[in-house]
Specification:
Layout (H helix, E strand, L loop, with lengths): L3 E3 L3 H14 L16 E6 L8 H16 L3 E4 L12 H11 L6 E3 L19 H12 L15 E2 H4 L10 E5 L2 E5 L4 H4 L6 H27 L4 E5 L21 H14 L3 E5 L5 E7 L5 E9 L8 E6 L7 E6 L8
Parallel strand pairs: 2-3, 3-4, 7-8, 8-9, 9-11
Antiparallel strand pairs: 1-10, 2-12, 5-6, 6-7, 10-11, 12-13
Amino acid sequence: MGQLSMRSGGIGAALFALMVAMSNPPVSTAAEAIGGDRAFSFVAFGDMPYSIPNDYARFDRLIAAVNQLKPAFSVHVGDIKSGSSACTDEALQKVYDQFQTFDQPLVYAIGDNEWTDCHRNRETPFNPRERLAKLRQMFFANPGQSLGRAPMAVESEARTLPAFSTYVENARFTKNDVLFVTLNIPGSNNGFETTDPQAAAEYFERNRANLAWLTDSFQKAKEANARAVVLIFQAYLWDIKDTANNIPPASGFRATIDTIDREARAFGKPVLVVHGDYHFFEVAGFRDTQMRLVPNIFRLQVMGETQVHAVRVIVDPDMPGVFGFVPLIVRDNGDF
């Protein structure tokens, strides 16, 4: 499985968009078709707004571009602020209000900057567990629906699996036989800090909920004969701090990688993992804990931080590969 990465350069982005368009030629002279009768698109982005207050205006411009495009829905993969900025209620509320200006449904997967890292700001430290509770209260007050001006119904783990009633942020929904699943898997080692007993305890419970949600969702996909599964979360799972060519046991992501690997192989159809964390656009394969490519899984990493842009994902459930990717560039937001 090959890799396509674009850290910068509008020419590269334009060429990639052209290649995608050429691989799906128009079926009529009246308008370009993006696929079959059941094809649709969604927009993915994350790790924004970062540079405050300037990025609020840049994020508004991206929202306007998405609203003009009119996708089926959009997904934000987390990190709604930078790690260095204060985790105040006001900062969270500002982004929540911006989320509510999306004309179509907006689905949000929680990142690390808005909770796990909030104790690291020396001037205004916050308790990470308290911030997570605030996020749940503010962004997931109604676990049965998404955000946005026209919210859509979603299925929440909190209501579907009563043993995990705390985890209102884990959701799923189906569009044209493609199952979409969100999980609270943030960067910073999935919140697993071995020197902090409270952080470790929170990690083990949340990780258990995440793994149960993954397993149950793939089971649902198999029972429904879904054409594909999309997993949405914040973390780059292979963020290890040594030179080993495998994922060490101390990684907070190891169990997640193993579960996705196992369930995707059993599912046997296309799986797309959408995440952020590293702030540049990349389409690549998914690797197991031994860093070997896993068949049938693609990984989309979205732009972020200084690159306040997005990716339009074309979904055609009746085509073998199901997914295609086109950068959504907002010219006034700067270089890509």
